[in-house]
Design goal:
Number of strands: 5
Number of helices: 8
Shape: globular
Structural class: alpha/beta
Helix content: 40-55%
Strand content: 5-15%
Order of helices and strands: EHHEHHEHHEHEH
Strand order of the largest sheet: 2-1-3-4-5
Amino acid sequence: MVNSYIALGDSFTAGNGIEPGRRWPDLLATELAAGREDFEYVNMARDGADSRQVLTTIQLAIDRRPDLVTLACGANDVLLSTRPDIAAFEGRFDYMLMRLRDEIPGVRLLVSTYPDGWEMPGLGPRTAQRIDRGIRAVNRAIIELAFAHGVPCMDVTSHPGVKQPGNLDADGLHPSPLGHQRAAVEYAKAIDQHFGLRKDQRRITA
């Protein structure tokens, strides 16, 4: 049983433009709580956060000693720089995993990659290629570091559901309300697979 959950990351987790209660961590937390009023949930993700900014939330998460932490970051390290420093991202992500695992005994920690092949409106071919290369490099780093730390990774690279109609907002980057609902389903499945969330308690549908 999970009694407390903290979500860490960028706008994907913070829910850019999505009202509270409809973001995928909110939906996941509602399911995990199963009606318990003592369940604790905090979404510490921030719109526009790169790995430097996500790193500043790690101590806050550690102080709360949650049972479950989800972590998704790295996309803005690519999107906000014409020359993304993947090595620096690797160092920060490695440090985040180390601290969360070492300083929250027994924590259930789940990380995730990003979809590749983004098709944002108005994006030129060169910029699209640069972003795609950067996201692929970030994804490789996430997978390799998760494996090194023994942390489960939900790899959504080339996931068949990523290109489903209605998943993305008009900007071609952020999940729509339906995309958040579908993401919550996938996270619930991953938590069940890795940590034993009971299947008969699932109520999220998409």
